[in-house]
Write a structure and sequence with these properties.
It contains 3 helices and 10 strands. By secondary structure, the protein is of the alpha/beta class. The strands form 2 sheets. It has a 6-stranded mixed β-sheet with strand order 5-4-3-6-7-8, sandwiched between helices. A 4-stranded antiparallel β-sheet has the order 1-2-10-9.
Length: 184
């Protein structure tokens, strides 16, 4: 089996780029149907969601805009439990259709805080899209509207997900070898 190494940890293939692309096309079709003619604002949560948001944005076949916000809650292989805003949102979202794009929702702390902050700015609608969702890791009541893949509580890298800044540029998703199971 193919393996890669980062910071002394071994990773094996988990979700390949073709599966990712197929699922992003499906989510793009859903968003297109739901938001046709509404010019949604896509808010990409940097850095991890950038590859997903970029591919998803190109699959939305209706006028849309994109903006970026940068939050941080991870260090190494785990969440710190503290959500820090590194770069805020400058766009006015009052009365707008908004879709937040995340790379992964695990504990739910980050998206829970971001959703509350955005709801205070009175968007017409607020939806959440995530490439990966770990329901068994949730600590907050969070239900994303669009999910690429439900996965178990495993540490993964690639396609925007990192280990201390490394591996984001891998075109596939890899799982820590000792935690290998296939995606659901």
């Amino acid at each position: 089996m193919k393996r890669i190494q980062y910071d002394g940890l071994s990773f094996v293939p988990y979700i390949d780029r073709e599966q990712i692309a197929d699922r992003i096309r499906e989510i793009g079709r859903q968003i297109t149907e739901e938001f046709r003619g509404k010019r949604p604002l896509i808010i990409c949560v940097l850095n991890g969601a950038f590859p997903f948001a970029s591919d998803l944005f190109r699959q939305i076949d209706t006028d849309a805009e994109i903006a970026f916000i940068k939050l941080s809650s991870y260090q190494g292989t785990g969440s710190t439990g503290v959500v820090k805003e590194i770069m805020g949102l400058s766009a006015d979202i009052e009365g707008r259709s908004v879709i937040v794009v995340e790379d992964i929702i695990d504990t739910g702390n980050t998206i829970h805080k971001l959703k509350a902050d955005l709801e205070a700015r009175k968007p017409a609608t607020l939806r959440i899209a995530t490439l990966l969702f770990k329901p068994e890791a949730l600590k907050k009541d969070v239900k994303p509207d669009y999910v690429g893949f439900n996965i178990p509580n495993k540490f993964i890298i690639g396609f925007g997900l990192d280990l201390d800044g490394l591996a984001r540029n891998l075109p596939d998703i890899w799982v820590h070898e000792s935690e290998n199971n296939s995606a659901e």
